[in-house]
Amino acid sequence: MLVCRNISIFFGGLAALSNISFSVGKGEILGLIGPNGAGKTTLFNVINGFYRPSEGDVSFKDRKISCLSPHQICALGIARTFQVVKPLQRMSVYDNVLASAFLRAKNRTQADNTAHDILEFAGLYDVKDLISKGLPLGKRKRLEIARALATGPEMLLLDESFAGLNPTELNESIDIIKKIKAQGITMMIIEHHMKVIMSISDRIVALNYGEKIAEGTPREISVNPPVIAAYLGDTASA
Amino acid sequence: MKKLISTFILALLIVVPLLGFSSYLMHILIFVIMWAVIGMAWNLLGGYCGQVSFGHAAFFGIGAYTAGILYQKLGMSAWWGLPLSIIVVTFASLIIGFICLRLRGPYFALATLAVGVILRVTAENLVGFTQGDLGIMIRERTWVEKIWYYYIILLIAAVTFYTIRKVIESKLGYYFVAIREDQDAAESLGINTTLYKTVALCLSAAFTGIAGAFYMNYMGYIDPNVVFALHDISIVAIMVVMVGGVATFWGPVIGAIIMVLLAEVIRSIPHLGAAHMTLFGVLLIVIIIFLPNGIAGGLPRIGKRLRMKRVT
User: Fold this and answer.
1) pLDDT in tens, A68-126
2) pLDDT tens digits, B200-233
3) Residues A29/A20, Cβ–Cβ less than 8 Å
4) Which of A152, A185, B26, B215 is the S-S candidate for A104 at Cβ 3.0 to 4.6 Å?
């Protein structure tokens, strides 16, 4: 469904990503892991259109998207969340979701219906009238997901939607992810929380210093020597 | 309920001049309503869409000069300037927006500030077209009575108010606010931020331009320093909205009442002269500190505080 071919991006002389290739199949959950600064969020920014890759290209449903702007890519069906949550602060939770629901809705009523459904789906219905600035982090992270879902995506990019959540919130969020998968929405998930990423991903891609160091099923990744070295330091230097 | 309030106020404003006010009072009323129009227009772009403009005099001036030049050069009635200014100003705002809207936040504000100044200097120097500093004067006024001017500006204000309310309650309004709150997030939610910012600018500019064209007809005289003025037009437009309440329907109306009355009162104090701008500045500081959401935005808070006192 999504294919990245030889993506590189340079910021000045620094190669933030070099020669990354992978693909995501329909309905799949692809986990993206790597130490801090490995280039995970940069990769999302490339797919989502904030950055244009210096080399290589991204295609979605056999269409090249690496030359489009973020709003066009969103209209094609890729929605994302942000690691540093970006709620539309002085709008209520409901209005946040409503604003994104307008993308596919033909009129106000339809947008209202979508917003209602999504808020119930994400378990945010009881806080819908609160100003999103005042929400606790767990709810704000979930609002990000709800907002992305309201754009009616076929593919969802989740950037650390589980970071900083307490165990209860974590389980709620995992349930939501499973429900989204059941709807047939493809997902790419960046996550540091190993228990979560191992349990929900179908496949995992590991990055380090902007390069892909491993790809495989969670089981394969958990015993992959370069991945272990990247996370724990390799034995020679220890 | 809220719809009823606006209808009631409109009805009141239609009836009020029949009481027979002095021509001075009518002048004040006309100015209040004209400033309310400019404030509402600024509020659409600056308040809802978050693109703070320091150059609304540009649109006001273009509107005024559209009417003035029609009269001066083509010998037509300056009233044709009202419909024509919509077209001219929208076109101008497309060009200005194309240049300025790629900038964000304070950079956009500075760019619009520059646009206002550039247009003033241009109007001063294009003597063959604008008569430069001589200005344009309409030699025969349409009416001596102010009441007709009053009803015309009231109609413009009512249309502006109604249109802006419709816009804000529609998809456009949600998009504008989304762009104000976080442009990157808005973009990633599928909102074409460049397009919608341009729409907000064009709408805002068009209403300001009509107010400018009305000013030409009403005052009968314009020159570049009057209609392209930074402190008398651009800054006052911002203050009307800040004092009244940013991103509220009634804020610009309340702000216009206060600003126009205040300007009259301060100007009537002897030996003060140009120092009235100083007092405006002090007022703005006080408002920002104590009522950051303006009077319309602060009222619910004041009301709540009063109610709490009553309970305890």
Assistant:
1) 999 999 999 999 999 888 888 888 999 999 999 999 988 889 999 999 999 999 989 99
2) 999 999 999 999 999 999 999 999 999 999 888 9
3) no
4) A152
Does residue B198 carry a pLDDT above 90?
Answer: yes
Give the containing element (helix H, strand E) for A60.
strand A55-60
Residue in B with minimal Cα distance to A44: B188
B171/A108 CB distance under 8 A: yes
In B193-264 the beta strands, taken as DSSP E runs, fall at 221-222
Q: What is the pLDDT of residues A196-228, one digit of tens each?
A: 888 899 999 999 999 999 999 999 988 888 888
Q: Do A50 and B184 touch (CB under 8 A)?
A: yes
**pLDDT exceeds 90 at position B310:** no
Domain ranges of chain A: 26-54+67-232
Dihedrals φ, ψ of A135, to 5°? -75, 150
Instruction: Identify the burial level of A88 via C-beta atoms within 10 angstroms of its C-beta, where 0-12 means exposed, 13-18 middle and 19 or more buried.
Output: buried
Closest CB to A99: pick one of B175, B192, B193: B175
Give the SS3 label for residue A78.
strand
Q: What is the least distance, in Å, from the CA of A232 to any CA of chain B?
A: 35
Instruction: Say what the pTM is.
Output: 0.89
Burial (Cβ within 10 Å: 0-12, 13-18, ≥19) of residue A175: exposed
User: Do the Cβ atoms of B189 and A99 come within 8 Å?
Assistant: yes
Chain A residues whose C-beta is within 8 A of a chain B C-beta are 48, 50, 69-72, 74-75, 79-80, 82, 86-91, 95, 98-100, 102-103, 108, 111, 147-148, 151
Whether residues B192 and A71 touch (CB distance < 8 A) is answered with: yes
- The domain made up of A26-54+67-232 is a member of CATH 3.10.310.10: no
Min CA distance, B260 vs chain A (Å)?
Answer: 30
Longest CA–CA span in chain B (Å) reads 70
Three-state DSSP at A186 gives strand
Shortest Cα distance, chain B CAs vs residue A95, angstroms: 8
Cross-chain residue pair B174–A99, CB shorter than 8 Å? yes
CB neighbour class for A74 (10 Å; exposed up to 12, middle 13-18, buried from 19): buried
**B244 C-beta neighbours (distance < 10 Å), count:** 29
- The answer, for B177 touching chain A at a CB cutoff of 8 Å, is yes
Strand pairing category for A155-159 and A14-24: unpaired
Contact B182 A91 (CB under 8 A): no
Q: Does B312 have pLDDT greater than 50?
A: no
The answer, yes or no, to whether ipTM is higher than 0.90 is no
Q: Give the integer Cα–Cα distance in Å for B300 and B304.
A: 6
Torsion sign (Cα): A216, A219, A220, A224:
positive
